[in-house]
Each structure stands twice: as structure tokens, then as C-alpha cells.
Amino acid sequence: MGKPRFQRRKEDRPAEITAAALDAFAEKGFDATRVEEVAQRAGVSKGLLYLYFKTKEDLFKAVIRSFVSPRIDALIENIETTDQSAEAFLRGPFLQFARQVPKSPVRVLVRLMVAEGPKHPDLVAWYWDNVVSRAMHALRTLMRRAVDAGEFRESAVNEFPQLLVTPVLFSTLWTQVFKRQSDLDTDRFIEAHLDLLLEAIGRSET
Amino acid sequence: MGKPRFQRRKEDRPAEITAAALDAFAEKGFDATRVEEVAQRAGVSKGLLYLYFKTKEDLFKAVIRSFVSPRIDALIENIETTDQSAEAFLRGPFLQFARQVPKSPVRVLVRLMVAEGPKHPDLVAWYWDNVVSRAMHALRTLMRRAVDAGEFRESAVNEFPQLLVTPVLFSTLWTQVFKRQSDLDTDRFIEAHLDLLLEAIGRSET
DNA sequence: ATATTTACTGACTCACCAGTCAGTAAGGTC
DNA sequence: GACCTTACTGACTGGTGAGTCAGTAAATAT
To answer: Which of A73, A115, B96, B145 has a beta carbon 3.0–4.6 Å from B115's, enabling a disulfide?
Structure first.
């Protein structure tokens, strides 16, 4: 018993609109993007957009939520259930995840969070609860296990799991800001960082 | 023969205004800051501000230029003329510089560059020429010397001197975005990163 | 004193755009 | 077919703020 076609639109609209908004924000940023343009890209009138989203800010939040959540959820789930060694996990699924961030459309959202964050404290709070603190917790657990198992030695990475993520943020922003001046080989950059870290905290020689 | 008092104002005005603008941008960001408010903070009328700066965007550029240049110039000069070993330099003057970035008023400018950069390509170009590419060149030279002298082994840091700077950007942004959620001990964070890097690329054991 | 130049003011304009709402038409129901 | 409901439209408004400019007052020149 599928929904009648008429109502199907209603269900799809929000996703269609947030997708259009992501594109628009990617090109112009939040402030410079006209609501009307988002509507146009979604093939919809401005009025309809306001039926689904109360304000422009509301739309912005919905964009972040709908694109960031699914990705991060998958990674965290992955960390928590893996039975690989920490090094294998970091060099495998984690590296793969880290590498695609600077290339995927969400890279724009990272920049927008930095740019607009201070103006939207409740969005930052949500992002913290749903993304950052969970990711940090998962990474800390992973590191803890590895240290306890004698795989890694005790190091600052246990206290600051952010050290694993640092080059991801860096290259995500670099490629957006200095696109014209210099392109960074983000794959190798991120892997190089991981190599150096593992070199420093691993137990084995060379 | 000093300038008459009357003309002194004229010389000081731009600096007074850019200082006021830095404060205002720090609190509200670029778009949300009203030109009139900058004028007010500088104790000046809006009209006068437009005598010294053609547009709001022009003012923004002047702010970046006047606050970023002097700092980076000093660091680069320092790298080029030092006779310390690379490790001593990195643990000394470089670390000191890196640590104060997330605490100084310029941290706001870093965020604004990320936020507004894509909208101001000519500003990015200037920033690249005057700051980033020069800093990278200086760091690369430093690393090259150290490798040639047998102090460090050949590593990805030679190709990607950005790896040295990564946690500076990270903590500069982190403290601004997640101020309320979690405070990061940026001093220890940045030093921890440096320790790990040096551990990985140093020649000596332990 | 008078004239001239220079730093400065602030009321005004004009374009812009987030958000509204009266109206339309397509879809469903009886 | 008549009637109701629901998704949708787009012209309009009200607030806003960047940038202007005619005018003032203080400093300097003659």
C-alpha cells in the first residue's frame, strides 16, 4: 500500500530542498545565498519552501543534520564493533573515511560550521552532541583498547584523540580556500600524517 | 619637524578604524557587523570611515593586512636567520609562535579567512603570496637543512611542511567554535603534536 | 581679519531580500 | 458532477544597511 503519488511529493520535498540548499551554500555561503535561489534550484516556489522550513536558519540546520549524521553514525558504529587491531582499523576504514571527507559535498558544511557556528549556538550544541563528542569518545575507546593490549604505547593521542583528525580538517579547509593557488594531494597528506603518528606511538621498531 | 596635530589624526585614523573593525568582526563576523558600528567604536562617523576605505570589503582586507603581516614577517625572518638546530628552533621560537596564535586576536582573522575567503579571491591571493607560501617556503628550507645535516630523516614533512602547522589551525578554530562545549588546552595540544612529529622523524632512539 | 583647505558629520537614498498571504489548481471523496 | 482538501504559487511588504553627499567646523595660509 504505497502512498498516493500526490502525497509522495510531500515526503520527498524536504530532501529535495536540502539537497538544493547544499549546492547553493557550497557556491555562495550562507548569507549570500538567496532563499529564492534555493527554491529555484529545487524547482519549487519560495512560498513552498517556507511551508517546510520556518526560517532560512532552520533550513541551514536541516542541511547540516541531514548530510552529516548518516556518515558519522556509520563510522562510529564501525569503530565500536570492529574486531580489527587499532592499527589495522586506522589504516583501513578510518583512513578511507578521513580521505573522502575533503572530497565529498559535506566538505562545504565543515567550512560553514566554522564560518557560521558562532552565530548559531544551538546548532553547534547539536553538532557537538551528535557528532563531535561521540566521535571523540569512540576514538578514545579505540586508543585505550590498543594501549591496554600493548599495541600502542601510552601517548598524548589518548588524551587528545583530535590529533588523529587534525589533517582532515586542515585539508578540507585548505582545498576550499586555496583551490586556485595550490592543490594539495589530500590522500597522501592524510596518510602521511597517520604514518607519522603510528610511527611515534607504535611499539615495534621501524 | 613633526606633523601638525591636525594632520596627525589623519595618519592615525586608519589604524584606529581597523582596530575597531577587528573587535567588531571578532564579535559578530563580517556580514553581521554594521559599518556604522565600526565607526562608532572608533569614535568616528560613518562618513569618515568611507573617506579612508572605499567599501566594507576594502576595510576587511585592510584589517587582515595590518594584523597578520607583522607577525608572520617576524617568524619568517626568524627561521631564515637562526643558527639553532631545527629541533631547537621548532621547540623554541616556533612553538612559542604557534601557541599564541589561538589566543591572540588574530585567531578571529583565521576564522574569517576560512569563512569569507571564497567570496574574496583577491584577498586569498594576497594572503597566499604574503603569508602562506612564504611560511611554507621557510619551513621547507628549515626541514631540508635538518635532513641534510643528518638531524632528521627524510620524511613526508619535507614535502608537506603543513604537517607542522596543522594543530595550530585546528585549535584556533576549535576554541572559537566549541568554546562552550569543551575547552582545549591548546598549549599542550600543540606541543603534544610537535613531540609526536619529532619522535617520528628524529634520528635518535627514545 | 579673511579666504581657503581639510577633516569630518549624519540624514538620506535606494537596492535588496526574508518572510507573508491571498489566491490557484491538482488530487481525492461522495 | 459538486465539494473539500492539500500542495503549491508569486506578487507584495517592511525592515535593513551600504554607500552618498551637501553641509559644518576646525586648522592653516595670506
So the answer is: A115
Residue B163: HSE in the Cβ half-sphere, 13 Å Cα cutoff: 29
* Model pTM score: 0.89
The whole-angstrom separation of Cα B193 and Cα B198 is 9
ipTM of the complex: 0.86
pLDDT of residue A4: 47
Q: Does B206 touch chain A (CB under 8 A)?
A: no
CA distance to A45, A99, A106, per residue, from A102 (Å): 32, 7, 8
Instruction: Extract the C-alpha cell encoding B80.
Output: 631564515
Measured CA to C1', what is the nucleotide nearest A8? Answer: D7
Q: Which residues contact B49 (CB under 8 A, 6 or more apart)?
A: B17, B35, B38, B39, B42, B59
Helix (H), strand (E), coil (C) string for B104-165: CCHHHHHHHHHHHHHHCHHHHHHHHHHHHHHHHHHHHHHHHHHHHCCCECCCHHHHCHHHHC
